[in-house]
Amino acid sequence: MTGPIGSRSSSSSRTGSRSTGGLDNPAARIMFRRVGGVVCALLIWELFSETGVINKSALPTPQATAVAFVHNLSGLGRGALGTLDAWGLGLLAASVFGVAIGVVVGRSRVADSLTETLVRMMRPLPSLALIPIAILIAGLGLKMTAGLVSFAAFWPIFINTRVGVRQIDNLILETGRMLGMGRLELIRKVVIPAALPMIATGVQVAISLALVVTVSVELVGGTGGLGQFVLVAQQGGATATMYAGIILGGMLGWALSMGYSRIVDHWIPWRSRGQVTTS
Amino acid sequence: MSTVALGWVGILILAAAWQILAILLHKSVFPTFVAAIAAAYHIVTGPALRTDILPSVERTAVGFLISSLLGVGVGMLVGHYRAVQQWTATVIDFLRSLPTPLLVPVAIVVFGLNGKMVVATIISAAIWPVLINTANGTAEIEPTMMDTANVFGLRGRKLFLKVILPAASPQIFAGLRIALSVSLAIMVVAEILGGSSGIGYYISNAQQSFDIVGSYGGVIVLGLLGWVFDTLFLAFERRLLSWQRGTVGGFIDG
Questions:
Q1: Which class does domain B56-242 fall in?
Q2: A81 CA to chain B: closest CA distance, Å?
Q3: Closest partner residue to B182 among A1, A41, A254, by Cβ?
Q4: Span between the terminal Cα atoms of chain A, in Å
Q5: CA distances (Å), B220 to each of A151, A187, B31, B41, in order?
């Protein structure tokens, strides 16, 4: 949820057309600035912590955090795996149901109208508010976490699939029918590939949303994973360990969204073309 | 039947299915639709309106406004100056991928269990969609427009407020809309985890004291709140961006 606009990394869209700054920046200089930015951020962190602008018990130094990171490697690893487990399960279920229902609804005018208001009402409802109710219904455990994650991640995938399917050019569908494709074949070979760029964007939103929900459930319910790791560290007063968990959470989120956009760029090369026609 | 009418039929079908299923299952953790609606009505008309709902609305609004101002301001700088973009790219990418609820324990350590903690957590999450969209919108402004501004000698604050801000506003508003729903979601989590008041606190407190219908009611109230926020926002956007309709369509599609 941190960046549903995540389809575009803040860096990739800047392809020139700016008159300020040097026009032909060598790659080395960009690299230097990016690394330099991280170093600066760490220095500012250090400064805040050392000078006590923020209470040192609330903000340990980067070094202390690094030490805590190394000391808790196994705990962090187990936490990350636990989070990934629930995240992956939930996302998988959400993708299957989101795409399947999205295709059906997008292809049928009646189903589309029937769900329109429902979607408009459900979209602003934060799934995170359902955590207490999910705990009531399913108890604390992987099943509940994955269930809630899939519920939350379902919506962006479903909504994007529905729009993607609705926007398919009738000409393409007619052509498919003329070539003698049956209903299922048409969906498998024409509808889904044509909607894939939109679906991919929905999944991208779902990936970060699912991570937020997973971590939240772990924080609220103490059901393992990174969320519980951070919570336990905070309750035990091990602030540096808590920060180590947060840093790992950030790296996890980053790796997942970066990895995903790499995969999408590689496997759905017609994606950029699709986006142009849908905008 | 019209599309809108069919939409409401869809809601009715869902409500009926919920009601029938709840009666058939007859489980205490799954109250009927009517009972949940009644609980929601009870919340809105009872003392919880003052003690929980209004504080939540206030925190969401304050967090959202601060995120908007910071996000638009920093976003324009990041989008306009290439050097700023390059220096901040990695840090921004990292911070916005961080699942924000992890920061709630930090906010609790720093601010304690109160409304300030909730607002701080909201800002840490809601600033990113605004910042990223503003930066993208700024970076994608037609070069001709920027050159024209240059020729007219617009510089500094004037350039940002008179040229960049309006030109990037469609993208900015898209980011703001996302930030609004993010604010609402993070508000709830923060209140569930460490609130002493608010709608999130109400929902989780109702669950812990086995007032199950109450926690369903809280969720419904929250859903309505989200809907109202979104509707108000869209109305506001339409109003503010009305000058754009038709005038800049060509340049957005490029």
A1: mainly alpha
A2: 15
A3: A1
A4: 22
A5: 16, 36, 13, 9
Q: Which residues in chain A are closer than 8 Å to B206, comparing Cβ atoms? A: 132
B64-67 CB contacts, 8 Å cutoff, 24+ apart: B64/B122, B64/B126, B64/B179, B64/B180, B64/B183, B66/B119, B66/B123, B67/B122, B67/B123, B67/B126, B67/B127, B67/B130, B67/B179, B67/B183
pLDDT value at position A14?
42
> How far A193 CA lies from chain B's nearest CA (Å)?
24
Question: What does the DSSP 8-state code read for residue B139?
Answer: H
Contacts of B86 in chain A (CB under 8 A): 11, 25, 30, 33-34, 37
Q: What is the mean pLDDT of residues B210-228?
A: 90
**Distance in angstroms (rounded) separating the CA atoms of residues B61 and B73:** 18
CB contact under 8 A, B85 and A226: no
CA–CA separation, B121 and B226 (whole Å): 18
Lowest mean pLDDT among A119-128, B23-32, B67-76, B224-233: A119-128
Least Cα distance to B188 among B158, B143, B218 occurs for B218
The CB-side HSE value for A41 (13 A sphere, CA atoms) comes to 15
Is B219 in Cβ contact with A125 (below 8 Å)?
Answer: yes
Integer angstrom CA distances of residue A180 from A165, A166, A184, A186, B132:
20, 21, 12, 9, 46
Among A248, A219, A222, smallest CA distance to A73 is for A248
Distance from CA of B10 to the nearest CA of A (A): 4
> Of the candidates B100, B110, B226, which has its C-beta nearest A212's C-beta?
B100
Task: State the Cα torsion B178-B182-B183-B185 to the nearest 10°.
Answer: 140
Specify the pLDDT at position A158. 93
Residue A103: the pLDDT is 92
For residue B109, give the chain A residue with the closest CA. Answer: A58
* Architecture in CATH of A66-278: Orthogonal Bundle (1.10)
For chain A, the domains span 66-278
Q: What are phi and psi of A168, to 5 degrees?
A: -65, 135
Average pLDDT, rounded, for chain B: 88
User: pLDDT digit string (tens) for A136-180?
Assistant: 888 888 889 999 999 999 999 999 999 899 888 888 888 888 888
Q: Residue B35 corresponds to which tokens in the numbers above? A: 């009972």
Structural tokens at position B84: 């700023």
ipTM of this predicted complex? 0.86
pLDDT for the residue A55? 73
